[in-house]
Structures are given as C-alpha cells and as structure tokens.
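Annex B. Sample input.
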Amino acid sequence: MRTLIAAAALLPTAALAHPGHHKDADPTHLLTQPDHLGTLALIVAAGVAAWVLLRGRS
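Annex B, continued. Sample output.
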C-alpha cells in the first residue's frame, strides 16, 4: 500500500492538466478531453494493479 501511495504522490498531476478553469464544465468533460482520459486511465490501472496484488493477501 505504501508503494501505491508513493506512486500517487509522485504522479505529475499538474503536468496533465490543460489550461483553463473547470467552473462550468459538465460531467462529460472528463470523457471528452484526452488529458483527463489519460489521468482516468492511470487511476483505473493503479486500482486494478492494487486489486491484483492485494487480492491474494488475507
């Protein structure tokens, strides 16, 4: 779990953001911007990796 936390802390989230504010963004904005899709893919991949690594430990 410490490795997952360290990976999340080291992820350059500011570099993945596009310019502009998101004050008036609708929910589909997350799925229409390539940088948001990349970030979402990283989050899903980290979650799946954590589940695969931790599912055998009880």
